[in-house]
Specification:
Order of helices and strands: HEEHHEEEHHEEEHHEEEEEEEEHH
Protein name: LysM domain-containing protein
Strand content: 25-35%
Number of strands: 16
Helix content: 25-40%
Number of domains: 2
Radius of gyration: 29 Å
Keywords: Signal
Structural class: alpha+beta
Shape: globular
Largest sheet: 8 strands, mixed
Signal peptide: 1-26
InterPro entries: LysM, LysM_dom_sf
Domain LysM: 109-155, 174-217
Length: 395
């Protein structure tokens, strides 16, 4: 037995040295700061086990609907919170990144300790985004202040802001835990960026990364800063969406050209003022008017909300050549004009405090229903009026 141990000792020593080196030299990007502002940020969370969306939301102290939005899962229904995501699924978690003690990090996640918990198991539950040592340090865990079942812990989570700018464009930064077998090249390819960009953001002196390293990855994003919105600011990462105007409007960041597109959400909530003033277009709609030399694209665009009122305006753009995406049978495309000023009621949807889940209806259908209703009412009055006058004359 002793001879066997002597033979295996060099291998055991090498393993211990490798393990200690891995533990000591894992890297993470830290952004110094000196202000009290915050920014939107993301966590890339590799699920350690099967979890409901609601369980993940509770784990990170965020709304389940925000998780769905960050991962472009739609629609949001009462059963969405109970949707099960399988282990090893990569989930984007939206968080707010604050300046705490001179560095950027999120301190809003609170964890309730269970009887069998250890610092290592709690760290595992957060997918390696935080180490046991970090949890121990932030919460002053020691011999006189041990983990206690039912107690609460602050979970310090990594995040960066970098002014939400990358290479001159709007960006949201995502904290990502390097997995075994990954390289900067494979990570850059996965998230649509470059090795040099990752090296610059993370201030790497060499291109090597190790499992457990936490990188800050720039995700291109859409901003409302140039959209002339009223008193509302929004940054939406590429490939996700957000709900605004009391969940009436869904704004998404289109991945192809990184442009913000806002449309009615269609959720079962009371929504008003979805139609642009003096037009038959609702927010997100557009139509095309052709001329001999160009085509004019007219859009109804979202402009923010104020005091419960959704704001919108018309936007005109002229092009020498149309994109070709408009079908010949498109009713908006075939219209002689996009501006019928008197054909539509003030609220084309006739939306009640409890609208149908199928809303919003297309404007043409809504107006036809309204016209049909008005027509039946008019015919009824025509039939009843002579009888009413005769009775008045007799009496």
């Amino acid at each position: 037995m002793r001879t066997s141990l002597q033979f295996l000792w060099p291998q055991i020593l090498c393993f211990l040295l490798f393990t200690s080196q891995y533990q000591v030299h894992t890297k993470s990007t830290i952004e110094p700061c000196n202000s009290s502002d915050s920014c939107p940020s993301l966590l890339s969370y590799l699920l350690p086990w099967d979890s409901k969306v609601s369980e993940i939301a509770t784990r990170f102290h965020v709304n389940f609907s925000d998780i769905l939005a960050s991962n472009s899962l739609f629609p949001i229904t009462s059963s969405s919170a109970h949707q099960i995501l399988r282990a090893n699924t990569l989930v984007k978690i939206p968080i707010s990144c604050f300046c705490v003690d001179g560095i950027r990090r999120s301190m809003s996640t609170i964890y309730t300790v269970h009887a069998a918990d250890t610092l290592a198991s709690i760290s595992e539950g957060y997918g390696g985004l935080v180490s046991g040592e970090q949890i121990k340090s932030v919460n002053s865990i020691n011999a006189t202040n041990p983990l206690t079942s039912g107690g609460t812990l602050v979970i310090p989570l990594p995040c960066t802001c970098f002014n939400n700018v990358n290479n001159g464009g709007t960006a949201v930064y995502m904290s990502y835990v390097v997995q075994r077998g990954e390289s900067l090249r494979s990570i850059a390819s996965k998230f649509g960026t470059t090795i040099s960009d990752l090296e610059t953001v993370n201030e790497f002196w060499e291109a090597a990364v190790d499992p457990g390293d936490i990188l800050s990855i720039p995700i291109a994003a859409c901003s409302s800063a140039t959209l002339n919105w009223y008193d509302e600011s929004m940054i939406v990462p590429n490939g996700s969406y957000t709900l605004t105007a009391t969940n009436c409007i869904k704004c998404s960041c289109e991945p192809m050209d990184i442009t913000m597109r806002c449309v009615p959400s269609g959720l079962d909530v009371p929504c008003y003022n979805l139609r642009c003033k003096e037009s038959n277009l609702i927010i997100g709609n557009e139509c095309v008017e052709h001329s001999a030399t160009a085509c004019n694209v007219i859009q109804c665009v979202y402009r923010g909300h104020k005091g419960g009122k959704i704001l919108s305006s018309m936007k005109n753009s002229s092009y020498l050549k149309c994109s070709g995406n408009y079908a010949d049978d498109d009713p908006c495309h075939s219209e002689a004009s996009c501006w019928p000023l008197s054909s539509y009621p003030e609220d084309p949807f006739g939306m009640s405090p409890n609208p149908s889940p199928s809303l919003p209806l297309p404007v043409s259908q809504a107006s036809l229903r309204t016209r049909a209703s008005n027509g039946r009412l008019g015919q009824f009055l025509i039939n009843v009026l002579p009888i009413f006058l005769l009775l008045k004359f007799i009496l």
